[in-house]
Design brief:
Blueprint: H1 22-25, E1 38-47, H2 51-62, E2 67-70, E3 86-87, H3 94-97, H4 103-110, H5 112-123, E4 131-132, E5 134-138, H6 141-156, E6 163-167, H7 168-175, E7 182-186, E8 190-191, H8 194-207, E9 211-213, E10 220-222, E11 227-230, E12 234-243, H9 253-256, E13 264-269, H10 275-281, E14 287-290, E15 297-300, E16 306-313
Parallel strand pairs: 1-2, 1-12, 2-9, 5-14
Antiparallel strand pairs: 3-8, 4-8, 5-7, 6-7, 10-11, 11-12, 13-16, 14-15, 15-16
Helix pairs in contact: 2-8
The protein binds flavin-adenine dinucleotide.
Length: 324
Amino acid sequence: MVRPQRPNGPHVLPQEEHTGSYYAATRNDLTTYSELNGEVETDVCIIGGGFTGIATALTLVERGHRVVVLEQNRISWGASGRNGGQLIHGLGGSTRLSKFLNDEQLWALHYRGNDIIRSRVAGYGIDCDLKTGYVEVAIKQRQMVGLEADYEAHQRRGLGDHLRLLDRAEVTALIGTQAYIGGMSNDLNGHLPPLNLCLGEARAAVEQGALLFEQSEVLEIEHGETVRVRTAQGCVVAQKVLIAGNAYHRLERRRLSGLVFPAGSFIIATEPLEDDEIARINPQDLAVCDLNNVLDYFRLSADKRMLFGGRCNYSGREPRSVEA
Ligand SMILES: Cc1cc2nc3c(=O)[nH]c(=O)nc-3n(C[C@H](O)[C@H](O)[C@H](O)COP(=O)(O)OP(=O)(O)OC[C@H]3O[C@@H](n4cnc5c(N)ncnc54)[C@H](O)[C@@H]3O)c2cc1C
């Protein structure tokens, strides 16, 4: 048999373990899954074991479909295992979706992700320190205007009781800084360590019958009556394929190149804070985001570290200062 070649161009090396992050050091499930060897037949083959791939796999097996997930490194190795951990309502692509859904249907999707996560954490007993409470903070007056409009939109849908518009002094009381001119709290949002959520969902998917393979980079997708998804040591024969590889894959370049690009943001974890420090800077254990496009976001970890994220680059490379 001729082994498929890797697509040309720069590429993430296969078979990496998790990055040396705080989340990886505090993951509470050390399960690993074997590499794909030989041929497996399934209904849906999912390429990529992050939130997109794993949440979809769980949904499909819950509905009785056979699913195989192929992850080139470890489950949740990518963005899903190293993000801000902020559980925030919202919806991307609403302009496109508005061709198919009316306003109320679109609005219902804003909190659908939060609801799914909460019900999975409770239903499958996922151990991920899920916290409730969030505040968006404004630096500019026009950001306050946006918050007021959002508040009214929530009120119109009967959700106003969950939100509170805040002036500068009220934000200062919540997070101990006068840097913001105001904000809005929302107790429908919250925060959690994302790697532990994704690992918990992966375990649930396996318990429901999904097959997960790690260190199994997909090198080639061969289309036909069924689809053949090839790795170095094996092949999945599927009715359908979902590419959930985020900005890390280079598959189907003719159709997909240029649609996704890397956007890097970086998070620092402090030493655990003292109780009096927490009382000053985040006594209610809220997730916090400012409203800039390149935003700062922060929250406390379960062991009381400040996890502070910000900055952005689009090169796909880590800045040298990250090691400092
Ligand atoms: C710093 C940062 C902070 C963020 N903060 C938040 C936040 O607070 N809240 C929030 O909701 N979102 C946040 N996000 C966004 C969120 O992390 C992503 O939207 C989400 O994780 C994307 O999930 P995914 O499964 O699509 O991609 P990923 O998690 O990146 O998973 C893709 C997976 O596909 C695998 N893969 C790629 N190519 C192949 C191949 N050929 N074969 C096999 N496997 C392959 C990769 O190894 C990877 O594991 C943040 C993102 C970043 C980077």
